[in-house]
Amino acid sequence: MSLWVVRIFFLLLCVTGGYAVREVHPDMIGGGPFTGMVIGFGFGGLLIAIDEMLKGFSLRAFSAATFGMMLGSVLAWLVDRSQLFIFAGEATQWLLRLSLFISFGYIGMILAMRGNKEDFYLIIPFVRFSSQSKPENLLLLDTSVIVDGRITDLIEANFLEGVVVVPRFVLKELQQLSDSKDAIKRAKGRRGLDMLNRIQRNSRIEVKIHEADVPEETDVDSKLLKLARLLDARLYTNDFNLGKICELQKVPYVNLNTLSQILKPVILPGEVFSIKIAREGKEKGQGVGYLPDGTMVVVNQATHRVGSSVDIQVLSLHQTGAGVIVFADLKSGDAA
User: Fold this and answer.
1) At what angle do helices 90-114 and 59-81 cross, to 10 degrees?
2) For a disulfide at 310, which of 117, 195, 334, 336, Cβ 3.0-4.6 Å?
3) How far, in Å, CA of 93 to CA of 95, rounded?
4) pLDDT, tens digit, for every residue of 219-260?
5) 151-158 long-range Cβ contacts below 8 angstroms, 24+ apart
6) Hey, how many other C-beta atoms are within 10 angstroms of the C-beta on 134?
7) Which domains does the chain have, with CATH numbers?
8) Tens of pLDDT along 193-202?
């Protein structure tokens, strides 16, 4: 909205400027004062239309286009100075020069915009366009990993360092979830906002709300991938499919669910530990408990200990499609 306020103000300035030019130099613009205002309005409207067409055209793309046009112009000038068209007439030489500069300038712009910063090493092989300061470690968060909350625990436990980047479109998605009529979505959105507040209160880490919207992409996942490439950031997510797309597009990412699976404690037969019996099992006499990571533990002859903590000894492990089930017996002291 603020952008359109600036545009309207600029348009009013153009209309006022057209009126003033008509009054100061009536011989330059024919007609009455209204003619100058119309010309000013048309000029301002043209510039606003060009601005709207260039929406999404980044400063990097503009810099690349300018460099490419300059390089193409230099090449055109060299061809022109080679006396290649010396035998042509003056009118023909002027037309050939114009064609050279337009053609080489256009080709240079297109090649520069299609390339990347590595391509400039071919032109300036001993110059590296890299920052002299230590590069920032950017942690780009998606909606799923913010709502999950484990990323907050990792940051507070000093396992992650760097600058946390939260795109404006992710924040907007969290706000839409928190305002949803669906109770589950509303709870997720509010939890996500609470997690962000916890991260922002951490004085050890910096949080940046990135304003880029990536208008050329429509869905949030595509915007995140494009932004991760532009910022050279590592994407943190819980979305399995998004992680696979990151692998295909060579975008660095971390899936916290995969990390959680890797960090699961290894349980071996014969191991002894304590667990709380949460409920009765399917078979007679069985009690069921859960490890902190959600692994189900089936304990024989533990029905009478539901609701209390007991010491158990692991008998075996059974792999299923949903994970591992641990089978155990009560230790002799807790079996009574």
Assistant:
1) 150
2) 334
3) 5
4) 888 889 988 888 889 999 988 898 899 999 899 999 988 887
5) 151/195, 151/199, 151/236, 151/256, 152/195, 152/198, 152/199, 155/199, 155/202, 155/205, 156/198, 156/202, 158/204
6) 6
7) 1-55 (no CATH), 59-130 (no CATH), 138-262 (3.40.50.1010), 272-330 (2.40.50.110)
8) 999 999 988 8
